[in-house]
Amino acid sequence: MEDGAGKGLECQKIMDGKANDNVNDSDKAIIPSCCLKARASNTELEAKCHATVVSGWFSEPESCSGKASKRVYFNNPMWPGEAHSMKVEKILYKDKSEYQEILVFESSTYGKVLVLDGIVQLTEKDECVYQEMITHLPLCSIQSPKTVLVVGGGDGGVLREISRHNTVERIDICEIDKMVIDVSKKFFPELAIGFEDPRVQLHIGDAVEFLRNVPEGKYDAIIVDSSDPVGPAQELVEKPFFETIARALRPGGVLCNMAESMWLHTHLIQDMISICRETFKGSVHYAWANVPTYPSGVIGFVICSTEGPPVDFMHPINPIEKVEGAFKYRRELKFYNSEIHTAAFALPSFVKREVMLLRDSPTPAQQICVS
């Protein structure tokens, strides 16, 4: 992945589904395999198997005779060649909304699991990592946030975490799929409790359209809790979308956006960092955390600020430990703290090599020396 920038541009075209037919054999060799998504899925077969098997994941169901049936593996094209086993104890819910298939099952190890279109979104056991990090990385990096927008996040977990910040006066959330909200309220009340905060204003609809109509500079922070960048969610990682976000943020406002795994998608991370550096005139960083049930066990975040008052993301100016009542609001924080915050920006050497735009990023230790 030494030519990361060039690969990123080709990756975007493939993921848009606009270039597949015109790619010759010599070009195929340089296209990341995770982006050849359209050739790896069988929608009808996946739909039949979701009761026990989801794309990219497998379980070993019991036959009527009590003997284990044959193991079945499905490759999700975002993570070619990988399968993570999770034993399904009981299917709790399965239906199809206007936008996606929704599955909830009870696992033997991680509690209840929410799956959208065959991709695990959260489990009861480790949801705390993602929800807490994507929320507090941005909100603890600015002084007294007051207005926050959540894009996606229909399970309510990000709302629950924003609610810990007592300076916040308004929380807008734009979720396209109301069924996700309804399912979460029924099966994941410990996350959906976020919707009960009176500061929350729910908007059901397309986030792209919603942001086009938002007044300039309305928000102190925007958190994009979106699906993986395939299909309809692809436009949520493209430059026009980031430009509407930058416009909606005040000077010195911050964005935190889910940004895939550094073990699997450095070419996508390169794309996102490149677009964000062109769009946001403040600072742009990449942070990460461990989530056991996500592919490779890691998830990343791109975190940016607009031009204005400088934002030092690595050293929280608004530490969660000093926000009155925040640490134990509704339930005690399980993962995030100020030490984890700073450590999240420390990048492995291979990431700095493969994501060229991160090579010059200061480490937390270097910033401490400067300050």
From TrEMBL:
<dbReference type="InterPro" id="IPR030668">
    <property type="entry name" value="Spermi_synthase_euk"/>
</dbReference>
<dbReference type="InterPro" id="IPR001045">
    <property type="entry name" value="Spermi_synthase"/>
</dbReference>
<dbReference type="GO" id="GO:0004766">
    <property type="term" value="F:spermidine synthase activity"/>
</dbReference>
<feature type="active site" description="Proton acceptor">
    <location>
        <position position="225"/>
    </location>
</feature>
<dbReference type="GO" id="GO:0008295">
    <property type="term" value="P:spermidine biosynthetic process"/>
</dbReference>
<keyword id="KW-0808">Transferase</keyword>
<dbReference type="InterPro" id="IPR035246">
    <property type="entry name" value="Spermidine_synt_N"/>
</dbReference>
<dbReference type="Pfam" id="PF01564">
    <property type="entry name" value="Spermine_synth"/>
</dbReference>
<dbReference type="GO" id="GO:0005829">
    <property type="term" value="C:cytosol"/>
</dbReference>
<dbReference type="InterPro" id="IPR030373">
    <property type="entry name" value="PABS_CS"/>
</dbReference>
<dbReference type="InterPro" id="IPR030374">
    <property type="entry name" value="PABS"/>
</dbReference>
<dbReference type="InterPro" id="IPR029063">
    <property type="entry name" value="SAM-dependent_MTases_sf"/>
</dbReference>
<dbReference type="Pfam" id="PF17284">
    <property type="entry name" value="Spermine_synt_N"/>
</dbReference>
<comment type="similarity">
    <text>Belongs to the spermidine/spermine synthase family.</text>
</comment>
<keyword id="KW-0745">Spermidine biosynthesis</keyword>
<feature type="domain" description="PABS">
    <location>
        <begin position="55"/>
        <end position="306"/>
    </location>
</feature>
<comment type="pathway">
    <text>Amine and polyamine biosynthesis; spermidine biosynthesis; spermidine from putrescine: step 1/1.</text>
</comment>
<protein>
    <recommendedName>
        <fullName>spermidine synthase</fullName>
        <ecNumber>2.5.1.16</ecNumber>
    </recommendedName>
</protein>
<keyword id="KW-0620">Polyamine biosynthesis</keyword>
<dbReference type="InterPro" id="IPR037163">
    <property type="entry name" value="Spermidine_synt_N_sf"/>
</dbReference>
